[in-house]
Amino acid sequence: ITKSGLEKEAECEALKAKVRQVELSYRAQIDEVVLQFETYKRTAVDPAEWHIKFEAERTSYETQIMQLRQKITDLENKIVMLVSENERLSQVADDRLRELESTKARSSSIDAGRLRELEDMRAQYEHCLL
Question: Which end of the chain is more exposed for a tag (fewer CB within 10 A), N or C?
Answer without folding.
Answer: C
